[in-house]
Design brief:
Length: 258
């Protein structure tokens, strides 16, 4: 498993670096395709016996959303994020009926995965490339810190009914590693959040951990281990992007408001 993870990272990190260095239109197009693929795999995981058109329509809807959010400056992204939160809460409700229907999961997919469009929006603002580097550095440091500290010192389970391996100790390690990564990356680019940087440095690791737990809860509801097997050792695209989706929302709106 570790060898597979390292192999994927060896290939994936240089590709991510190239993507970040690419012009904004290329970056936006690539992220749109990635989100569409992630929507396809989530729809297939939620309804493995459904027709290919079911998953493909979800992928197309997500791609259209991502494209529209970039093309229209006043596209109502925030209301869609609120709708996504409500729909996900209904899907995860223990007595809810929406999770028993393909239509419910299609709706959840087409509202949840487009949260990743915030990464496109972040890239399009002033110093967007630097902000995206901050996003990925903080997210990856949080994930790595949580994994390493949890493996070494983890004893108290964070949310056993959703994830039997994540611990409070790992979460604290992720918070510390992520906050340090944010401070270093933010300071390196002199992005100027001022005193608010300390609050954002704590917010983003919490968002990353929340995104990870949210996707774990969705997979538990679907009764699947991974969204797909596209990334050996990691699972699917969403198994690697789950934290990025939520961190992207928090960082984009933090930058916009602050």
């Amino acid at each position: 498993m570790l060898r597979q993870r390292l192999l994927v990272a060896t290939v994936g990190l240089p590709l991510l670096a190239l993507l970040l260095a690419a012009p904004e239109p290329v970056f936006a197009a690539a992220v749109t395709l990635i989100l569409a693929a992630a929507a396809y795999e989530m729809a297939r995981a939620a309804s493995p016996d459904g027709s290919p058109a079911y998953a493909m329509s979800a992928a197309a809807a997500v791609a259209l959303f991502a494209a529209a959010s970039r093309a229209a400056p006043n596209f109502p992204v925030l209301p869609f994020a609120a709708m996504a939160a409500i729909t996900l809460a209904l899907l995860l409700h223990p007595r809810g009926r929406i999770a028993a229907t393909d239509a419910g999961w299609w709706l959840g997919t087409t509202l949840y995965v487009p949260l990743g469009a915030h990464v496109i929006l972040l890239r399009g603002i002033e110093d967007g490339r630097a902000w995206c580097i901050v996003l990925f550095a903080t997210t990856f440091a949080t994930d790595t810190g949580a994994y390493a500290v949890g493996r070494l010192f983890g004893k108290h389970l964070l949310w056993p009914s959703v994830s039997p391996k994540k611990t409070w100790e790992g979460g604290l390690g992720g918070l510390v590693f992520g906050a340090i990564a944010f401070v270093v990356a933010h300071g390196s680019f002199d992005l100027g959040l001022g005193h608010a940087a300390a609050a954002v440095a704590l917010l983003l690791p919490v968002a990353a951990i929340t995104g990870d737990l949210l996707e774990s809860a969705l997979k538990r509801t679907m009764d699947v281990k991974d969204m797909s097997g596209w990334l050996p050792g990691h699972g699917g695209l969403l198994d690697r992007l789950d934290s990025v989706l939520i961190v992207g929302v928090c960082l984009y709106w933090s930058v916009r408001w602050l």
